[in-house]
C-alpha cells in the first residue's frame, strides 16, 4: 500500500490552528483535483488515480528516501492490488481505470505493476498539471506561514528541486483520500464537499482576523460568516457534469452532510465538529506535518516560500 510516513511526533497532537490548516489543505486538494479533471478529459476518478500512480512511480523527485530516484532511473511499478488497497477502491474498478489510462498512453502496465513513464511527464498537459500542483503546494505553505502555522526550519545548504515539492503535493492529496474518503459514498462526493468547504470558508481565509478567530477545531464560525455556494458553480470549477453535481449534492443534503441555504449550500457544522471527524483530521494533519518535514529535507524555502514557485502564485479557484 502507498502510505505517508508514520507519525511519530505525537506531542503536536493538539494541532494548533487545526481548522485553519484543514481549510488550507482543502484548497490545495481541490485545486489539484480540478486541474487533474481538466487535464484528463473530465474523468475525476482517473485524474486522482493518475496522480497517485505518478507519485508511486517515484519519478517526481530526485531527493532522498521516500522520494523519487535520480535522472535515468526507471519508474517504480505499483501493483493494482496495492493501488486498490491504498485508495479504498475495488480491484475491478481500479483495473478498469488503469486499463483506460494505459489505453490513453498515460500509464504502462508490466509484470511488476503500473507506472507513469518518464516520457509522459513531458506532455504539455501533464507538465502544466504538475507545475500547477507544485505551485498550489507552495501557495498552501505560503499561507500557512502568513497565518503563523508552525513550519519546519529551512535547510539552506540543500539545493531545492521543484519535483520534491510536487511529490509532497501528491502526498497531501493521498493523505486526504486515505483519512476522509470513507465518510463519503464516492470520490465525487468527497471532492464536492471539499470544494464547498473552500467556498464556504472564503470570508474567513481572505480575512486574517476572522481566519485566526475561527482557526481551532472548537471554534465554529457563525452561520452568517459562511459563504453559500451554488451547485452549478462547484460543478463548473471542478469540471464535473452539472447533472452529476446536482444529483450528488441532493444526496448529501438528504444524508445531512450539506445544508441548503437561500444562496446555495454549506457543509453542516455537526459533521465538521463531530469528535470522530476531528480526531481523523488531527491524525491526517500530523501526516501532513511529516510530509512538510520531508520537504524541508529537500531544501524547500520555508523561510521564504514564494522563492520556490515554478511559475507564480496560483489564483484561488473562482467559486462563487
Explain what this protein looks like in three dimensions:
By secondary structure, the protein is mainly alpha-helical. 53% of the residues lie in helices and 4% in strands. The strands form 2 sheets. A two-stranded antiparallel sheet has the order 1-2. Strand 1 and strand 2 form a beta hairpin. The longest helix is centred in the middle third of the chain and has 23 residues, at 124-146. The N and C termini lie far apart (38 Å).
Strand order of the largest sheet: 1-2
Query: What level of helicity do the residues show?
Result: 40-55%
Principal-axes shape call: globular
Main beta sheet strand tally, sense and closure? 2 strands, antiparallel
Q: Number of helix segments?
A: 13
The end-to-end span amounts to: 38 Å
Oligomer: single chain
Number of strands: 4
Mean pLDDT: 89
Class from helix and strand fractions = mainly alpha
Strand content: under 5%
State the low-pLDDT regions, or none: 1-14, 61-73
SSE series? HHHHEEHHHHHHHEEHH
Cα-based radius of gyration, to the nearest Å: 19 Å
Keywords:
320 residues; mainly alpha; 4% strand
Give a brief rundown of this model.
The protein is mostly helical and 320 residues long. 53% of the residues lie in helices and 4% in strands. It has 13 helices and four strands.
